[in-house]
Amino acid sequence: MFALKTLRRETGAPALPALRLIAAAALATVVAMALAACSKPVPKVEDVRPVRAIVLASSNVDVSAELAGEVVPRVASQLGFRVGGKIVARKVDVGAAVRKGQLLMQLDPVDLQLAQAQAKAALASAETNRDLARAELKRYQDLREKNFVSQAVLDSKDATYKAAQANVEAAQAAYRGQANQSGYASLAADADGVVTRIDAEVGQVVSPGTPVVVVARSGEKEVVIGLPEDKVDTLRQVKDVVVRLWADPKQALPGKIREVSPVADPATRTYLAKVSIPDAPQARLGMTAVVQFSSQTATPQIKVPLTALFNEKSQSSVWVVENGAVKLVPVTVGGVAGNELLLTSGVKPGQTVVTAGVNLLKPGQKVTILGAETAAAAAPVASAITVGAAK
Q1: Closest CA to 306 of 366, 391, 386, 375
Q2: How far apart are CA 75 and CA 101, in angstroms?
Q3: Of 267, 298, 322, 358, whose CB is crowded by the most CB atoms within 10 A?
Q4: How far apart are CA 291 and CA 314, in angstroms?
Q5: CB of 294 within 8 A of CB of 264?
C-alpha cells in the first residue's frame, strides 16, 4: 500500500497498468525458463572435410626434362611426276597402305606416246641409212682390192658408214629416253608405306617434279620435339631417353636422339630434335608422345605435387593423414621438378599426404579421402612419369 501510494503521488496516475506490465514480464520469464529446462541439448556435429591425397613413394630416378612431341615417320617421300602433264587418274586416298611399285597416279600419256612413236620412226630411218652406208662401203672395198677406185674414195665411204652408225646410236638413245618419258606418266610408290598427304587431284596440270603424293615409309619412326635453348647441351648428353605415348603412358619405349638442329626455330626459339623409336608398331603416325630425359640419383627422392605444400610463417609443411585426422608436418624442399616438389626431409615413403584442400585444414581435423584407393594404386606410375627440370 505504501508503494502504491508513493507511485500515485509521483506520477499522478493510477498504478494498475504498471502492475500489469510487471506481471506480464515475470510470466514470460518463467515460461522461457520452463521451456529451456524441458528442451534437450543439440548434439555437436563433427566437421569432416573431404580431401584428395596420395601415398608417398621414393625413387632414385631424377627426370631432368619431359618434352611433348609428335610421332613422325623416319622417312617421308614427297613423290612427283618426272614429266609434266594433266592428271587423269588417282588410285589411292590418304591413309591407304601401299606396296613398292603400286600405281598412285596417272598422267595423260597421249603426247608422250606420240613422242615415243616419233623417236622410234627416227631410229628406223637411221638404221636404214646405216645399212645403205654399210653396203656402199662393202662394194667400194671390193673395188679397191681390184684397184678400180682410189683410197680416198674408200675412206669417204668408210666415214659415211661411221656417221650413219653414230646416227643410229643417237636415235637409239633418244628412243630409250622417250620410252622412259612415257613410263614416267605413271607414278608408283618407291617403297612400302602409308599415304599421308595428297597435293593434287584429277584434272590438274602439274609441272615436272611437283610433289603430288607424300608416302611415309614403313619401319622406324621417331618423335619430333623442341629442346629449350638453355637445355640443349645438357639433354644432348643424357643417355637414358624414354618415350611414352599419350594413348598408353604406362608403356615405356626406349628412345635415342638421332639428330639435333644446329639452328633454333625462328618462331618457337627451340631446337628441333628427332628421337628415334625403333620396333614400336603401337606408335602410329601423328600420335602425341612424351620424351623423358632422366638420370639416376645417388639417394632416393620423394616427390609431391605443388598443391600439397602448405606455407605458414615462412615454414613449408604438408598435411599428413593418420587415423583419419591430419597433422601438419614441416618438410624441407630440395627443388622443383616440373609440377612436383622434391622433399629431402620431414616425410617418408608410405605416408599419406593431402594434395588438395590444404588451406582449409587445421591440426587434428577429421578428413575423408576422395579416391584413396585410386591414388594409392596410381602412385608408382605417377612417380615413373614425373616431370623434372634440367639441372
Answers
A1: 386
A2: 17
A3: 358
A4: 36
A5: no
At residue 96, the pLDDT reads: 92
Q: Output the CA torsion sign for 165, 166, 170, 171.
A: negative
CA atoms within 13 A on the CB side of 162: 6
Spatial distance between the Cα atoms of 90 and 201, rounded to a whole number of angstroms: 7
> What angle do helix axes 110-145 and 151-183 make, rounded to 10 degrees?
160
pLDDT at 342: 81
Q: Which of 94, 60, 87, 341 is nearest to 214 (CA)?
A: 94
Backbone angles phi, psi at 253, to 5 degrees: -110, 130
What pLDDT sits at residue 315? 86
Measure the CA–CA gap between 274 and 261, rounded to whole angstroms.
9
Q: Which amino acid is at 260?
A: V
Location of C-alpha cell 584428395: 52
Question: What is the Cα–Cα distance from 304 to 294, expressed in whole angstroms?
Answer: 18
* Strand locations in 27-152 (E): 48-55, 58-73, 76-80, 85-90, 97-98, 103-107
- 200 three-state secondary structure: coil
pLDDT of residue 283: 85
How far, in Å, CA of 67 to CA of 143, rounded? 89
d(Cα 129, Cα 161) in Å, to the nearest integer? 8
Q: How far apart are CA 155 and CA 132, in angstroms?
A: 16
pLDDT attached to residue 33 = 66
In what helix (H) or strand (E) does residue 233 lie, and over which residues does it extend? helix 232-237
pLDDT the model gives residue 130 = 94
Number of other residues whose CB lies within 10 A of the CB of residue 62: 18
Q: What's the predicted TM-score (pTM) here?
A: 0.54
**What length is written for the chain?**
391
CB 174 within 8 A of CB 119: yes
